[in-house]
């Protein structure tokens, strides 16, 4: 007699069960994708769709906002300069006359460079491809302008134009940064960073004295009120300190006329601390200068990196993507760091750093911005 035992194989059952579930999930996923598949659909397209309201806002209002921004930059710059003269000048004059003259010269050199490069950045056209002209090197057609697009040209949706060597649209300049004004834009930022660093370095002691040392005056109203400083005081009937400026008003008992009162030595820093508006101005300067230093300092570092690599901000983004796809990709406009900087600053045709960068200069970059040498066809002695 044979006895048959039935043994249930749990392991096998579990495997089959899992396989079935997996298969069902795949089936559902395939069904979903077959119903929703779109060849034009990609992550970038989805992001573009989601950002559509932002694009709409930029397209319609960036023009107006740009004007407001330029106005704000101008007002802010003049406010900072005015405060530097109002507070910084007397402070340094009291300390050292020669140093003050030196600071005024350096400060004004920075100011002239800031104003010049900002103004030129705002009014100089970045360069646009000519309409209706043949451009032999045109790499593609702009979908929005329906016209040939030279290499390194990109369409700006705010300006609604193609821009040569486009870097980005700058609302602070109310202008596109491109081939013909990129140098002005960059040097404006550099001089601005230098300017606020200058103010911070030579104003830090004022800030320290005003906001730290004289922050909590123990004598209350006496220190806060500039009218009381340097004068003997007496209490009036309401118990408020009032200055005694005229010796005839001295109280004969408490302040005999013959008594010579010691006059405390008042420093300019104490005078600033005691002046409500000067104190507020110092706080304003501290906040403004540090914010500008952080914001523009970061931008200068980013742009310097791009210039060293011979790419615009747009290209930096594109080239990064290209390198991800193809490890052998090389930026065709990277001629080496030294040459990239010389081309960017327009230091060709015997121009010098001393005259053409350290002082305002209206020289244009070499070339038209329409055609470009690439590393494959660059001439050895170019530029
Ligand atoms: Zn275009
Ligand atoms: Zn633009």
Automatic annotation (TrEMBL):
Domain annotation Palmitoyltransferase DHHC: ranges: 138-204
Its membrane topology: Multi-pass membrane protein
GO molecular function per UniProt: protein-cysteine S-palmitoyltransferase activity
Organism: Leptidea sinapis
UniProt remark on domains: The DHHC domain is required for palmitoyltransferase activity.
Family to which this protein belongs: Belongs to the DHHC palmitoyltransferase family.
EC number assigned by the record: 2.3.1.225
Pfam families, A to Z: DHHC
Subcellular location: Membrane
Name this protein carries in UniProt: Palmitoyltransferase
Catalytic activity, reaction form: L-cysteinyl-[protein] + hexadecanoyl-CoA = S-hexadecanoyl-L-cysteinyl-[protein] + CoA
Assigned GO CC terms: membrane
PANTHER family on file: PALMITOYLTRANSFERASE ZDHHC16
PROSITE patterns from the UniProt entry: DHHC
Source organism phylogeny: Eukaryota, Metazoa, Ecdysozoa, Arthropoda, Hexapoda
UniProt keyword list: Acyltransferase, Membrane, Transferase, Transmembrane, Transmembrane helix
Segments traversing the membrane: 64-87, 99-120, 185-204, 281-302
């Amino acid at each position: 007699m044979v006895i048959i035992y039935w043994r249930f194989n749990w392991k096998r059952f579990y495997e089959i069960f899992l396989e079935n579930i997996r298969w069902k999930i795949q089936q559902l996923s395939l069904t979903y994708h077959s119903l929703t598949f779109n060849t034009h659909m990609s992550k970038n397209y989805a992001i573009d769709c989601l950002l559509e309201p932002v694009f709409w806002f930029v397209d319609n209002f960036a023009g107006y906002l740009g004007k407001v921004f330029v106005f704000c930059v101008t007002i802010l710059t003049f406010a900072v300069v005015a405060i530097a003269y109002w507070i910084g000048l007397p402070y340094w004059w009291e300390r050292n006359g020669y140093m003050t003259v030196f600071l005024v010269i350096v400060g004004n050199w920075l100011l002239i460079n800031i104003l010049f490069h900002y103004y030129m950045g705002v009014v100089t056209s970045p360069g646009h491809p000519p309409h209706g002209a043949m451009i032999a090197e045109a790499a593609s057609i702009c979908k929005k302008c329906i016209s040939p697009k030279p290499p390194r040209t990109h369409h700006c949706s705010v300006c609604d134009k193609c821009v040569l060597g486009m870097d980005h649209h700058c609302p602070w300049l109310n202008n596109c940064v491109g081939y013909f004004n990129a140098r002005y834009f960059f040097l404006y930022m550099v001089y601005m960073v230098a300017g606020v660093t200058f103010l911070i370095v030579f104003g830090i002691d004022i800030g320290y004295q005003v906001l730290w040392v004289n922050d909590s005056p123990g004598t209350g109203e006496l220190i806060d009120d500039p009218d009381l400083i340097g004068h003997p005081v007496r209490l009036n009937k309401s118990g408020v300190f009032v200055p005694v400026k005229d010796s005839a008003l001295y109280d004969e008992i408490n302040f005999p006329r013959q008594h010579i009162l010691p006059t405390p030595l008042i420093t300019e820093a104490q005078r600033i601390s005691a002046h409500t508006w000067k104190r507020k101005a110092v706080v304003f300067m501290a906040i403004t200068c540090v914010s500008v230093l952080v914001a523009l300092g970061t931008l200068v570092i980013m742009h310097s990196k791009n210039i060293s690599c011979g790419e615009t901000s747009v290209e930096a983004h594109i080239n990064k993507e290209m390198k991800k796809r193809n490890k052998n990709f090389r930026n065709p406009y990277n001629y080496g760091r030294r040459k990239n900087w010389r081309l960017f600053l327009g230091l060709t045709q015997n121009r010098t750093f001393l005259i053409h960068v350290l002082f305002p200069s209206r020289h244009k970059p070499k070339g038209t911005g329409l055609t470009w040498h690439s590393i494959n066809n660059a001439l050895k002695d170019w530029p």
